[in-house]
């Protein structure tokens, strides 16, 4: 895996060994960032279900200021820490091992808010609508923010989830991307 654009363009990042994670392909990542950016003038990112940290690191490379990476797998957390250390971006990041829902409540209690939230759960465990509801309940997305949901292409997410509206939905082979905004 490599970083496609920005400050760390061309640098490689380590993958999580085994078949438990499904990193976003370069083709999908490039198309995704062309839709949501492609570059940023600062901002805070939450990479929930971080896996390798691929999406959050790409957002940092393209100009976001900070990123919180969360994954419940200790192996994934070790890989994210390795990748951010290797890139020298540890001061701009926080990495936590936690369950996604529990982590969202903790972020809400800490009054955190994010300009960009990536949700890329294991396809077999998709609960995206419920996770998006918690994001709103905990007031985790800034007014101009975006929630990017990566899911199986056969999964169709609702047009509206509470105050969020689907702004874009595209498929790339087996991968679907749905973006929500206020």
TrEMBL record:
Molecular function terms, GO-annotated: methyltransferase activity; nucleic acid binding
GO biological process per UniProt: rRNA methylation
Keyword Protein biosynthesis carried by entry: no
Species the sequence originates in: Alteribacillus iranensis
InterPro entries noted in UniProt: DNA_methylase_N6_adenine_CS (IPR002052), RNA_MeTrfase_RsmD (IPR004398), SAM-dependent_MTases_sf (IPR029063)
Pfam families per record: Cons_hypoth95
Record's keyword annotation contains Zinc: no
PROSITE patterns attached to this UniProt entry: N6_MTASE
Keywords of this entry: Methyltransferase, Transferase
Name of the protein in its database record: 16S rRNA (Guanine(966)-N(2))-methyltransferase RsmD
